[in-house]
Amino acid sequence: MSQCCKICCFSTGYRRIYRSGKCSMALQFEIIGRFNRARAAHLTLPHYVCQTPLFMPVGTQGTVKGLTNNQLEDIGCQIILGNTYHLELRPTSQLLDELGGLHKFMNWPRAMLTDSGGFQMVSLLHLADITEEGVTFQSPVDGKPMLLTPEESIHIQNRIGADIIMALDDVVKTTTTGPRIEEAMYRTLRWIDRCIAAHKRPLEQNLFGIVQGGVDPVLRDICVKGLVDRDLPGCIGISKVINANLPYKN
What we know:
By secondary structure, this protein is an alpha/beta fold. Helices cover 28% and strands 26% of the residues.
């Protein structure tokens, strides 16, 4: 991995990659303490200053099931994850934009992150068709086709208005082997360029990349270096959610 990168472990199982001392108009990342390979930091986002490491609960459609916002604040929740694909299905990003964004829709004063919809390539694989243009889903709601391109994913997330938005990547299971892994990694790099070009709110939202390459260290290193060269505010690495039993190392 490139020496100009640092890795911070979150309780969610994500590993985020930052350039040391990374700072942008919409993000500041300051390391405040270290212990061996662990570290604590302040992550300053447009809506909140998060202390890491942290736990990020999932609020797929704009709500964390079973808890009120006051309860989430009381237990120290700093950031919530929303799902771009499902939010676009219902209530739609157009409605969220008209209401002032997801923060106002939820009445949530702290940070938000939206994924790109890419994980649905795995979770809804039986409903998805992946090409260079993007991924076409068959809606689980009404069966209608929905084409999600890198550009459309970013446009949707710009309307939703989260502090951190994720680039659309070509997602494969970590247990996948063979040429499909390499194909997904290089497509992810091509798609990140389309995401960067489509991003219209860089001073208000942080576009993060996603490392692909499966468990192949050579492919992952190529992807990491490609993302670092693009000078994004941040990235995420492997997600243990995909395969909780698969060991990984930095």
